[in-house]
Amino acid sequence: MNTFPLLSLTVFLPLLGAALLLLLRPRGRRAAFAIGIGTAALTLLAAGLVWARGVPGGFAQLEELPWIPAIGAAYRLGVDGVSLPLVLLTAVLFLATLIYSANTSEQPASFVALMLLLETACLGAFLALDLLLFYVFFEVTLVGMYFIIAGWGHDNPKQAALTFFIYTLVGSLFLLLAILALYLGAAPHTFDMRALLAHPPLGGTAALLTFGALALAFAIKTPLFPFHTWLPTAHTAAPAAGSAILAGVLLKLGGYGFIRFGLQMTPDAFRQLAPYVLGLAVFSAIYGAFAALGQTDIKRMVAYTSVNHMGYVVFGVAAAALRPAGGPFGLDGAVLQMVSHGIVTGGLFLLIGALQDRTHTRDMGQLGGLAPAYPVLSGLFILASFASLGLPALAHFPAEFQIFLGGYQVAPVATALLLVGLIITTALYLRAIQRVFLGEQPAVLSPLGDLGARELWAIGPLVALIVLIGLYPEFLLGLIHATQRLIMAGHE
Amino acid sequence: MSSGGMDMKRDLLLVLPQIVLLLTAVGALVAEMLRRRRLGLAWTLGGLGAAGAAALRQLGADTTAFSGTFRVDALSHWSVLILAPAAGLCCLLARQELRGTPREGTVYSLLCFGTLGAALLAGTGDLMFLVLGLLINSLSGFALAAYSKTKAGTEGALKYFIYGTVTTAILIFGLTYWVGITGDTLLTSLARPDLPPLALAFGFVALITGLGYAASIFPFHFWTPDTFEGAPVSVAAYLSVVPKIGVFFALAQVGRSLPANGPVAWPLVLAGLAVASMTFGNLLALLQQNVVRLLAYSTIAQAGYFLLGVVGLPAGAGARRALIVFAAAYAAMNLGAFAVVLSTGKTLADFRGLGTRRVFAGAALTVFLFSLVGIPPLAGFAGKLLLFEATMAAGYTWLAVAAVLNSVLSLAVYLRVVAAMYFGGTGETSDMGPVSWAGQAVVVTCFLVTVLLMFVF
C-alpha cells in the first residue's frame, strides 16, 4: 500500500504556486506566468500519477486526517471513476488557459495567483469525501471566479461578476442547508460522504425537501432553465481564460453534484422526482439551443450551447435515477459528456478570445471571410464547432450517443424531443461558421497574424483531445463504467 | 454544609476573572488620574490578559457561585476569553485614534468597565446580576459614545443614552413581575410549571426590550447608526462587539431556564425577531454610502444571526457551542473591519483603490467582509454553520432558510466595499496618515483569527 498523499499533493500544488507568487511578488509578466504554468504542469503530472496508480471503481487512494472531531468533520479525500475524469479535465484546462493567457499584462501576478487558487478549489471539490470540505472548496470557486471576472473582464465586468456571485451563492447556500439536513439525518451525525453514500440517511418528506435544495443548488450551477440567466452575462464579461474555466470546469460541479449528492445520497427522492428533472433537462437543452440560435454575439452563442449540452448531462443522470436497471448508458454518457463539453467549450472560448484579439468584435454581423486570413484559427474553430454539434469521431458524439441510448430506454418521447436540440445546434454552428469564416474577406485585417505559438500550445492539445475522445472514448469510459456499475448496483 | 468563610473563598475564586476585570478598570482609572497614559494602556492590556488567563484555568467547570446567582459555565468562561482580548484590541484602536486627547486614559478604564458588565451578563444566573451587568455595561457605553465632543458625537451619545435608559427602565419594570410571580430573583425559578403565563410573558417582552436595545436587535436598534457614526471609530468597534456578546450570552442563560414549550413560546418570538433584524439590517446597509453606518446596519443584521443560536438552545448543547464560536468569529471579523476603517476613512469613496494602495489592508478587509457573509473557510462560516445546524436541529428549518437568503443579501452589501477597493478606480488618497503599530497589530490579529479559526477549533 502506497501511502504517499498524492491526492493532497494534486489539490494543493496550485495553492503552493499561488503562495509562491504572493511571497516573491514578481513584477514581470514572464516570471508570474512561468510560475503559474510550471505549477499547473506539475499538477497535471500529479493528476496523471493518480490515474496511473489505478482507480478500481470504488473510492481509492483515501486520505483522512482529523479536522473538527466534535462535529464529525474530517479532512477526507478519495477518487473514483466519476471524479478522476473531472480531475484530469480540470488539470488539463487550467494548464491550457494559463498558457493561453500568458499575454495578460494587467497585474499578471494577481491573475495567476487567483487562477491557481481556483484550480485548488476545483480539484478539492471533486476529490473531497467530506461534505464540509466539499462545501469549502465549492464556495472558494465562487470567490476566485468573482475576482477574475470583475478584475480582468470587459463590458461592465463589475455588474456581471456581482450577478454571478450572488446568483450562485443562492445555490450554494441551499446546498449548505441540504448538507446540514444530511448531517442531521445520519446516525451518528457525520459529514463523511462515504458513510452517507453507503447508507443514504433520509427518507420521506425530509429526503424530498433535501433533494429539492440539492436540485436547486446544482440546477443553478449546471445551469438548467430557468436558473441559467447568470451564465450569458458572466461569459460576456469574463476574459477568455475565465470563460473557458467557467464553462469547462465550474459548470461540471453542477453535474458532479447531481450524481454525487442527488443520485447517491438521496436516491429514492431523486427517483420519485426524476420525471420533473428529466422534463426540465429536456426543456433546458432545447431552450439553450434556441437561445443560442438567436444570438449575434458569438461568445454568447457558445455560452447558450452550454445550457444545451449541460441539459444532456442532467438528462443522462435523471434517466439513470429513474430506472437504475435501465442499462449503463445514461450515467456513463453523462460523465463523458462533462469531460467532452469541458474540452470542446474550453477550446471554443479560447478560440473566440483569439478571434476577438484580432477583430475587436464578437458580433457575427460584423465578422466575415476570416478563413483565408487565419487558416489555422478557422480550421481549429470549425473542428471544435463540429465536435460541439455532435459529429461522429469527435468528443461529444460517444457521450451524447450513450445519453440518448440510456434515455431512449426510459423516456423515448423526451429523447426524441432532445434530438430537436441536436438539429438546432447543428444549424446554428453551421450558420456561425458561414458568417464568420466564409464569404467576402474584410478590407482591413489586424496586424496580428494567424494563431501564434502561445495560442497553439494552449489550444492544440485541447483539439487533439477532442479527436482522441471521439475516436477512442474507451480510455475514459472504462474508468467511468467501473464506478457507474458500483453506483447503480448500490441503487437497486 | 461547609462554613460560610470557605464558601466565600470558593465563590470569590470562581469569579476571579471578573474580579481581575474590575481591578484592571480601577487601576486604569488611577493611572489616568496620575496622567500616566502609557502605563495605563500597559496595565489595561496586562489586566485583560490576566483575566483571560484566569478564565482559561477554569475552563471545563460547570457550577454556580453566590448561591446560584452567578453561573460559572462555558458561556461565562468563553465570554471572558472572547471579550478580554476584544477589549484589548479596542484599547489598541483607541490608542491609535485618541492618542494625546485630553481624557485618553479614561477610555481604557471605561472599556474595561464595559467589558466587566458584559462578562457579568454572560454568567448571569439571577435577575439582579442581569440588571447589574446591563447597567455597568450601558453606563460606560454612554460615556464612551460621548467622548468626542462633536455635534454628531453628542447627538449619537444622547440617542444611545435615552434609548438605553428608557428600555432599561422597561426591563426592570417587567422583571419585577417575574420576581413577583416566582418569589425570588433566580433564573432557575422560571422553570416552575405553575407560573401565571401572562406575567411570565410580560416579563419576557420587557427583557427583550432591555436586552434588545443593547444588542441592536430590530426594532430596538434605532440608536445604532447615529451613535456609531458620531462616536470615535474605536468606540463604535467596541459597541458593535462587547455589549452584543454579553447580551446574547445572557439571553442564552435565560433561555436555559425558561421552558421552551411552556406558556411563553419564546423561541418563536426570537425567531421572528431574528428574521426581522437580519432583513432590516441588510436592506438598510445596502443603501449606505458611509462605511461606518454600513457596518452599523450590518451589526443589526448579525444580531439576527446571534439569535439563531438562542432559538436553537432547547435542542441541546450544539447551540451553546454555536453561540460561542460565532461570538469569537464575530469579534475578530468586526473589530478587524473597524480597524481598517479607522486607518482608511469613513466614506465608500475613501476605499477606492485601497486594494492596490495598501495591499494587506485591502486583503484583510476583504477577508473580514467575506467572513461576515459566511464564506468558507473563514471564521464567520464556522460560526454560521454551527448556528444553522443548531437551528435545524431545533426544528426551525424555515429560520435557517431565511438566514441563508439573508446571507445572499449581505453579500451584496459587503461586495460594495470590496468592489470599491479593487474595481472602483484609484480615487483620491485620503488615508488618515501613517498607521500606528497598535492599529496594525489589531488588523493582523483579527486577520489571523478570522483565517485560522476553522482550522484550530
Please describe the structure with a list of short key phrases separated by commas or semicolons.
heterodimer; A: 492 residues; mainly alpha; two-stranded antiparallel ribbon; 74% helix; B: 457 residues; 2 domains; two-stranded antiparallel sheet; 18 helices; 76% helix
Q: Which H/E pattern describes the elements of chain A?
A: HHEEHHHHHHHHHHHHHHHH
Give the proportion of residues in helices of chain A.
over 70%
Q: Radius of gyration of chain B in whole Å, from Cα?
A: 21 Å
Number of separate structural domains of chain B: 2
N-to-C terminal Cα separation of chain B, in Å?
39 Å
Low-confidence residue ranges of chain B: none
**Biggest sheet of chain A: strands side by side, in what order?**
1-2
Taking pLDDT < 50 over at least 5 consecutive residues as the criterion, the unreliable ranges of chain A are none
Compressed to H and E, one letter per element, the order of chain B equals: HHHEEHHHHHHHHHHHHHHH
The secondary-structure class of chain B comes to: mainly alpha
Please give the domain count of chain A: 1
- What is the overall silhouette of chain A? globular
Determine the N-to-C terminus distance of chain A. 32 Å
Rg over CA atoms of chain A: 21 Å
Main sheet summary of chain A: 2 strands, antiparallel
Question: How are the strands of the biggest sheet of chain B laid out side by side?
Answer: 1-2
